[in-house]
Amino acid sequence: MLLIKQGRVIDPESGRDETGNIVISAGKITDYLPGKAPKNFEGTVIDAAGHWVLPGLIDMHVHLRDPGFEWKEDIRSGTVAAAAGGFSSVACMANTSPVNDHAEVTRYIREKAASQGAANVFPVAAVTRGMEGKEMTDFAELFEAGAVAFSDDGKPVRNALMLRRALEYARAFDFLIMEHAEDHDLSEGGAANEGWAALRLGIPGIPSASEEVAIARDILLARLTGGRIHIQHISTKMGVDLLRMAKKAGLRVTGETAPHYFTLTDAAIEGYNTNAKMSPPLRGEEDRMAILEGIVDGTIDAIASDHAPHDDLTKRCEFTAASNGIIGLETALPLSMSLLAGGKVTPARLVELLSVSPARILGLKGKGSLRKGSDGDVTIVNPEDEWEFQESDVRSKSRNSPFFGWKMKGRAVAVLCGGRVTHSLLRDVAADV
Amino acid sequence: MEWRRRHVLGLADFSTEEIEFVIDTARSMEDVLTRDIKKVPALRGKTVVNLFFEPSTRTRTSFEIAGKRLSADMVNFSSTVSSVSKGESLLDTARNIDAMKPGIIVMRHPASGAAHFLSRYVSCSVINAGDGSNEHPTQGLLDLYAILKVKNKIKGIKIAIIGDILHSRVVRSNLHSLGRMGADLWLCGPATLLPREMARSGAKLTNDIREAVRDADVVMMLRIQLERQHTAYFPSLREYSRKYGLNSEVFSLARKDAVIMHPGPINRGVELSDELADSAHSIILNQVESGVAIRMALLYLLAGGHHAAH
Amino acid sequence: MKKSVKKLILDAKGVDRVLSRLTHEIIEKNKGAEEIALVGICSGGVPLSRAIQGKIRSIEGLDVPAGYVDITLYRDDLSRAGYQPRLKRTEVPFSIDEKRVVLVDDVLFTGRTIRAAMDALIDFGRPKNIQLAVLIDRGHRELPIRADYVGRNVPTARNETVEVIVEGEPEEWKVMLRESAPGKGE
Question: Which residue in A322, A341, A343, A340 sits closest to A402, CA to CA?
Fold first, then answer.
């Protein structure tokens, strides 16, 4: 039995934002008590006074690199990093080695996470075999093995007909396809956003149109097929506009963005900083503002880190040769909390972006809520904690981040996953991982 | 002023004083080049490594001659990028060469920012001999020097640079050297090779070669890479040459005493007609001469024992 | 940093008299001015060599060729010196082959500048001989170098400076002895 007492419980799913107490037993939330804490509680007590108590946060876009690239990250280190960042669940992408296009790989991931992981891991399987874009994977079998959605992320499904078929086939089971929206012909050879920053540094550019053309295609194919599609890591203004239009038209399209797209622009590539290189690339200020706007007006459903660990060798080199991506599990929450300044994004909205929507989009039952009967996944946040993100803080195996030295406000001080404490900065609460 | 730079990676942050200082030093170096014995002992005992990841006879030879005139020991490492990607990373190559303790490394590499990268991992000085599409600082300086020799000033001079602006590191360096010194710069090329964002540099843009050349004091032609045709930047070399090549008819629009420049090597008949390349208006050979003097100047300035950055 | 003037060694008139004497000595030793070429060492030696050229013209009615050389690129202390010294110009617009070349400098001190000047001259051609004329010899030689023609011998301490001003009008020329930071010489 575990009691989280006196915290500010922010649970949009039940419409709550008040001081309250949560009781967890056998891995589930068994009781919710508003107001004063119950006296004489038998069991572990976590004092959350002065903190926020949120449904366990869910990062719906991470790369755990396991199997195949375990020197960059593995299921253990990745989930420890997730917990340190405030997440109780993550959805991991399929671009492992071997690719997660077979049920055995899906099961391997689930089993390893169950025995060693510090968070719930929901595998996302590939749309096409080997992510080659030619043949669909066995969607139903993969789903039964534990895959929650399908994506060739890292790549788009290049052929429109292939994507059409996948969306149509998936529709029957109401499976979700998530697309990395990029037109490879337009982006070919590019390494940074096509704009003045790249032009000045002589770096080949990737035009915004590369993402925009792909999003338009993906939305229209969803319209054609009646299937569900989720657009990953949106980075452009027009991308947000297209998503807004799709929602207005009642299409079953959702979208996510990553914290770096609303905190950085392509100015960050100055000095050939390879920790500012990712796909899609950082864009211009206009795009950044449009992403913020999309978060505020509800066009963008979720924030996901696109945690992409890379070792030193592939980042400590010439810009055009460097691999794409940055780690993000441990900075996603504090960077997202910067949205609260200025009042346009409320704490409840933040919880939607980081927990409620991911749970809904991925169909994760019992998650994204603190209602009685939900899973015992809880994130406790100190919204006033001012701290500086340092390399020494990082729990991931990789260190490719542009945020070192950034002053953050807000931090996850404890995370529970199925009632088990997976992360704790609280003095009298120990993590059990 | 005192020379304090440890590296010459690009002209982007060079002050006008620094540019003038290099030009002045180059003038003194030209004195050496007019003698019978074109050699001074200034860099005796110093090793200069030419690290070229892109084939280049012209620039490499120019640096080699410059170093030898100063009595430096010149060492050539040529490497194609493919052998690097098969084996050593640029980081490893940098560390290996640095362990041999050269005084100066001159590097040419196909990736923009490669020289900046190298400079972070070696303890000696680095001169960028061209990195991807980023900069070619010695070219920017020698072009300025060559123009000063014939025109005696830069301010107000109309300079038209014509060709593949998008991929040209020569243009980027020239924007800093010529642009900063007050030239009236015009960039011209097909729309696929002349990004509109370039206007932010302060240069004027046009897709019409006649507009660029009209009343120009200097017409600089850039080499069109023949491979660009295959990635659909323009329909054919024939069309490119007709619309963007310099011939006598177009050149007649320039001022009577206008000069023609080209960083070399020339695609004769494509961007520049034979007739013009060999005419009295061409100062292309002056550029080559100026190049040796500029490179001698930079080798001399970087060979000093003390740099602010140490 | 300039310290107090210790002593005025030569005023303008004094410099002029010394130059006249040096000119006569040069003409006498070389038995006439026909084969003479003057090369001033930058920077102090340049106006001095021009003055001597002028005096030879008045005395012998002959215009001997005069040039100047910057010895910076021949110095033996480059890269020890700190920031690379600023280069000056060199102009020797005549052949020095078979000529009696008279190097002209303002102050002879350690002899290293003269060694560098001789290296430079050898690269220009093959003179018949090389002679050295200096306005002031202040001692403290570090190399086996001696001047053929000396305007004035001024024994000095190492921390003193001999300051030769030969810019502007000859009426403003003078030579002074100053105390200064150790190690500073010509």
Answer: A322
